[in-house]
Amino acid sequence: MIFVQNLTKMLYQPWPWYVSGPLIAIIMALLILMGKKFGMSSNLETFCSIGGAGKFSDYFKIDIKSKRWNLLVVLGSVIGGFLGAQWLSPNPAVDISEQTVTKLQDLGFESAGAAYLPTELFSMESLTDPKVWVILLVAGFLVGFGTRYAGGCTSGHAISGLSNLQRPSLIAVIGFFIGGLIMVHLLFPLIFAS
Amino acid sequence: MKSLAYIIIGTFLGVVLYKSEAASWFRIYEMFQFDSFHMYGIIGSALAVGVVLVQWIKKSKVKSFSGENISIPHKEKTFARYILGGTLFGLGWALAGACPGPIYILVGAGYWPIVIVLFGAVLGAFVYGVLSGKLPH
Lengths: 194, 137
What we know:
The structure holds 2 protein chains of 2 kinds.
Chain A: H1 2-12, H2 17-33, H3 42-50, H4 68-86, H5 98-106, H6 119-122, H7 130-150, H8 154-163, H9 167-192
Helix pairs in contact in A: 8-9
Chain B: H1 2-19, H2 25-32, H3 38-59, H4 80-96, H5 100-109, H6 114-131
Helix pairs in contact in B: 1-5, 2-4, 5-6
């Protein structure tokens, strides 16, 4: 009984990395065993095709039906996000390290350590600042353009590709880190300097 | 029936990524600052288990649930697209604090400004598709 109580309690707290990581690998394996693959970014192209992008480029002339399964995974992940946020997280604050909190406060992120996402970028009030719109739009554009150019994102390259010991995926992941480190260390001080 | 299975797998993925905080902007920033082991632990342990599972699937020649042969396609062996696309993706990943999976998850979690990121990502995928013939791969 005590075991069950502890387990329930743990469910509502942030899940440790050594539980989450293996679960992600199991999700990947399940998709492979269903004859598919674990890759979230190709859905972005499917959205383009659904929206009629085939009129602009043959690149988007694909059989949308063959991508339906992955759109269902997306639908599920939206539901999962809802469940995780509404039912499983009484305290959404992310317990990031103290050094990180200090660095973010210096950049003007007062919500560091007190929220799941920075309210400076992801609250409705933040949208009154046009600069936030530009930041979110540019960030999304880089994610979408970059992941399709690289042929995969964190799921397709860092998890699936590296699990299959693919050298191209290693190159892509090195690229992810080059870009991420440039953004956080060189560009953040310019973008967020208050 | 199969449709339901995909939705359930997606739901499970959404809960795992939300609860592990891999969908948190703060965790991504912390990772690129090397201030915590958390994200490296998630990716590292996913890989450790993932390598074993993929090798098992390949070596055992296990069939898919519907009885078909499983083939895991190799990535084409070039360089430019991976390093250039990867770097652009990394810039966006750090700024948005979310990669494609978490973008969908955060829509469900109700952080509405993420819809702007999603719109940008679809736009980015569109522009890539239009330009793809002209870019070095």
